[in-house]
Amino acid sequence: MPSPTLKYAYFPGCVSQGAARELYQSTAALTEALGIELIELKKASCCGSGTFKEDSRLLEDTVNARNIALAEQLKLPLLTHCSTCQGVIGHVDERLKEFQSTDPAYVEKINGLLAKEGCAPYQGTTEVKHLLWALVTDYGLEELQKRVKRSLVGANGRSPLRCAAFYGCYLLRAQKTLPYDDPYAPESMENVFRAIGAEPIYYRGRIQCCGWPISSYAPEKSFKMAGTHLLEALEKGADCIVTPCPLCHLNLDSRQPEVAKAIGQTLDLPVLHLPQLVGLAVGIEPKQLGLDRHVVSTRSVLDKLGF
């Protein structure tokens, strides 16, 4: 059973506060429903989305050492709900913890830069954890199953909602080690689906890149990558794709009309954020989860569930 004081220093990231506001909204609704306390890091800065290191590794490490230090000051784990934020900040934390013994001068240099700005030093005393891992390892699947209030089995005895996971490559393989799952054969998302009564759909693209990282300079290739994954999920019978990454969501949902045009196929496959799906199962209303904010309508999912 989860601790009544399950609490995290919450790093919402940029995308959930802008282009994918429904993720911010649904995370707040879900954690409140589950009794998880989030202390939002209002002074945190963008993780860089993997781009800072193209100019300077020191820049990426310093910016994110500061983000981690904000959580350390609260003596709490840092919680993300974005695969990219998790991959970047988690990898910085992993690297700096290693450097504390192998290259302490480098960590001292970072802390010197932080001190010049009046920031607390990085100490390596906490962990960086995605909402997915928090639900699976901290809250627990058994407890999550107990909180289910709304069946994800279709109305009138239809089959369960068929959900295709899309993990996001940063969540799985940006860090050297992944203690919560297998980076090449993950099951965490599928285990969550089972716990809340949905049916997992397996397809090749679920652990691959969505195409977002190349969308700014090779949009056609990016759209075709996304289109391949969407078509595979549809061919396997998915009712929706569920992702723990707002950048993947942007490429798979917000850009789905362009994707469909690029591949010459009709798609119309709803793409849900992870807390939206879990939120439905624990009894939160669709509007409260922001399910009316998507580019691709989520109506087919809601109709199947009898809303």
UniProtKB/TrEMBL annotation:
Source organism of the structure? Planktothricoides raciborskii FACHB-1370
Q: What is this protein called?
A: CoB--CoM heterodisulfide reductase iron-sulfur subunit B family protein
One Pfam family here: CCG
Asked whether the keyword Oxidoreductase is assigned, the reply is yes
Q: Which UniProt keywords apply?
A: Oxidoreductase
Q: Which InterPro entries match?
A: Cys_rich_dom (IPR004017), HdrB/HdrD_reductase (IPR051278)
Domain (Cysteine-rich): residue spans on this chain: 8-89, 164-253
Which branch of life, at top level? Bacteria
